[in-house]
Amino acid sequence: MAYRTPGGHRRVMREDLVHFLKEYRMPIPAGLAKKGRRILIVDDERAVVDLIVRAIEKLNRKCDIDTAFDGFEAGRKVITFEPDLVILDLMLPGIDGFKVCKNIRSGKKTKHIKVLAITGFDSPENRKKIFSSGANDYLAKPFEITDVLERVDKLLP
Fold first, then answer.
1. What are 48-75's pLDDT values in tens digits?
2. What pTM was estimated for this model as a whole?
3. 56 and 87 share a domain?
C-alpha cells in the first residue's frame, strides 16, 4: 500500500516493500528486515528503564530495544519501531499506560503486540483495569528483575 503525504512525498509501508522485494526475488536491504525481536520499554523513571534494558541485554538474546518516557512518545514509537513486546508502565505523563494499551489493541497493525504492564499501584481494581485494557500480563512495582525476564521469555518464546 502506498500513499502520498500532505507535503507530496510518496510513502510505502515497510512490510509491503519487503513483500514486494521477496515476491520478485530482489535483495532485501539489512535495515528493512527484522533481525530479532523488538522490545519497547516505557516508563517515566529512567532508572527503571535502564535496569530493564541492562537485564534484557544480559540475556544475550537477539533483541532490538527502544525506550520511551511518556505516553505520547510510546504511542509514536509503537508505530515507528514496531515492537513485538511493550513493557509498559501504567502511570505515565501525557497519555497514561491504560490508554496506550487500548490504542495498541485497537490498531490493525498493532493488535498483535504483546503488552507487559507494570504498575506501582497494585490493587484488585487496577489489575482488572489492566487486563480489560488489553495487557497480556502484569507486574507490580517493586519487582524482581528475574520476574521481568521470566515474563519476557513467556511473552516472546
1. 999 999 988 887 567 889 999 999 999 9
2. 0.77
3. yes
Residues 126, 56, 58, 69: what is their CA dihedral angle, to the nearest 10 degrees?
Answer: -90
Q: Residue 119: pLDDT above 70?
A: yes
H or E segment at 137? Answer: strand 137-140
Mean pLDDT of the chain: 88
Same domain, 26 and 66: no
The whole domain housing 27 covers: 1-33
Q: Shortest CA distance to 126 belongs to which of 90, 85, 151?
A: 90
Nearest to residue 77, comparing CAs of 48, 50, 113, 45?
Answer: 113
Residues 73 and 140 occupy one common structural domain: yes
Output phi, psi for 64, to 5 deg: -95, 130
Give the integer Cα–Cα distance in Å for 5 and 105.
26
Residues 89, 149, single domain; the answer is yes
Name the domain count of the chain: 2
One domain for residues 105 and 74: yes
